[in-house]
Fold these 3 entries.
Entry 1:
Amino acid sequence: MYGFNGVALPNAIVARLGGLSNILSDLGITTFIGGGSQFIFTYLWLLLLMFIAFTLPNTQQIIEPLNPEDSEQGDALFNQGLFHNTLKFRYSIGWALIMSGVLVIAIFGMTRVSEFLYFQF
């Protein structure tokens, strides 16, 4: 965990580091009570989401075939060919199923009660 109060690692991870834990404490890295598995899963999710953000297309790149004269080819990783033609929007059964699934998830997600974020302002 990193914040304005410094860097902290879970006790479960620091306990397994042996002599390295003394070096970390000399560097000012503290510990907190917490499980190492949640810490590791958090950063695995972070790596997965960074892969998605940096390699998959954004909405403008997906919809580009519908309006090609307004689009510019940038130097993003997606434009260099990783999934360049696979994830372009086309009127097809596959895209219809994807959009239907997103719609169903969005509608079912509206049934949960959520607190209004700015209720005190």
Entry 2:
Amino acid sequence: MATEKQVIEGAPAVGVDSREVGIPCAAYLEMEEDWQLIHDLRGGTQAMRDNATDWLPKEPNEGTDAWQARIKRSYLLNAYDDAIDQLTAKPFSKPVTEKSESGAVLPEQLRRMADNPCKDGRDLTQISKAVFDDGVDHGLVHIYVDYPALKIRPNVQEERDGQIQPYLVHVSAPNMLGWLYRKDASGNKVLTQIRIREYATVASGDYGSVEVETIRVVNERWIELWEKIEDKLWKLKEVLPKTNPTIPLATLYFNRTGFMTAKPALINLAWRNLEHFQSASDQRNILRFARCGFIHAAGFSPEELDEIRSIGAAIMVAGGENSKIGYVEHKGTAIAAGKEDLERIELQMEMLKLQPTTQRSGNVTATERVIDAAQSMTNIQAWIRATENAQLQWFQLATTWNSETFPEDYKFDIFSEFGLTAKAMEDLEFLLKACVEDKIPVEVLLSEVKRRSVIDEVWTVEGMMELLDAAGPTLPEKDDDDDLKDEGDEGE
């Protein structure tokens, strides 16, 4: 990373304080708006409950105790998290392979780096899988290519003897607080500064440990290491000169919106998953009341009503001539509508989960669609190709730290032979629409989905139906809400 300490012209003085260094840039703040939802969805039921103010807000005139009880009865169906896990599992179900048409091999230092890229015991396949998962989740992900901090720069032999080599630092989008850039003679944007938030666990006392938050500011000529000393205040602990004049950062995009910016690749699924969570929560709350009858009494005095509140099987209540008492029970029509609505949301989520693995044919003729001749790259295959190119960039950046040369025809290959064709996706969309319109039962839809190998062979239609039934009830559609006010039978 750097050589021995020295005074660097233009660099800030060690020991100074700053609040600005920890303030994210405007582009970061814009992307951050989507991150809370996807982070909480991946955190599961507890995370969604912890942020219920955002995801299950209190209703008008709802008491705090009732709101908290409603939150505790709410459960998340992990569609978003499952989708990313499944998408990530597909390409890395087989190890990443390396190939060279000329038979070239990686130089010694780069070979060691490929075997243990982040110096944490994980191989290239495992690191790439983690990067891929993070990239789909946030829409982009960064890899910073670092080099061990040494007092004196070693020569080639010392690097080989000491097994000193560059290594990769996985930087998730929420930890890239800011960046600056310039345009070169060709108009290309070239990074001149990045700010990376890092966390480290350090010993405290004889047995304890504390988490230390730092910010690494990488400039073209030096690196600044800032440590958080209190809320929003940072102290500069160290300034190190850089031997590498470039910013060794590789950014991998999955749903790019601009330079260093993106939106989560499955953001539409995330919002649909939130809709399902809220709908299921409200419907479960409706069931709580619908499952129990309510006492309905009329024509009683206040004193007589006190007795009614404690009515039991062995108590008889007498009232005036015009008094009457009975139970009001919910008919359940709106509840059934809510259950159907929930099933529709779940089916829509399943279709959104399939989209990244669906071959998009673009402008093809009807004949081509029928014979399924249009072959194109799916989203996930495009992400895989981008990841392979990023892997090359990681190793090419590593050579800027040393005198090694990366073979020109050396390539990395990630498994990508999977996905739905355009014709298969059209079939599924037709079946889904027919099911939503009640033209075919859910069992038929699931059977056809399974026949097209969209769902693993271990699943049976009966098993999937049981999962749908157990997933939880749904919020009724708006037109059905009024039913809750008037539905009921009196029993005497």
Entry 3:
Amino acid sequence: MGRSVLVRRGGKSVPVTLTGGPLGVIPQKVYTGTRPREGRFRNTRGSPLPWSDRPVLDESCGRTSFEGMSAISLFSRPRRLALAAALGVAAVSLTACAGARPTPAAEPEFIHPDGPPVNPFSPAVRVGNLVFVSGTLGTTGTGLTLVPGGITPETRQVMENIKRTLAAAGLGMDRLVKCTAFLADLKEWPAMNEVYRSYFGNGKYPARAAVQATLLNGARVELECVAAAK
């Protein structure tokens, strides 16, 4: 046997049919609100029975959920079973409601291995379990002076700079999961790879893309990466 109840959604009352017990214990109306309220049972028929026939429900996250109840006495086994059936509907809804609540966003952590940045970007930013490493050139110190010698020494310096940035976040090169390589000339891709591969063991290389681009200060290579925090 079914029973219609009113559920508040978007400021409107929507009828919903519940089943699972006699009419004496199926909810007759859904109470709404965003503040937690003390769960309670009400006797809507005015009779001095030692049990209640209207569980108070809440739909604060878009689904009907049972908020709780005060201690009540149920003298007969049929009434206890009927009430349990009615509350089963609410318990299932409560589980779905809890799963729908969003997880608070993680606060970003700005990583600066060399102190306050000279330029308006951070060498790396950690958000939750991910560390985003900015595009890194083969420079020494905090300036824009490239190591001399071209693609091979520049790639080595790029990798050392990324390694130092990750160390400031408490991570190693083995935690890199994605990199993008920017090359001034894709013909230098094999030479870059020779140095790049030496920083990873057991063939566990990050996912990667490579593109040709005009780079700052005449650089031959730039890498940006993403690492997975432990």
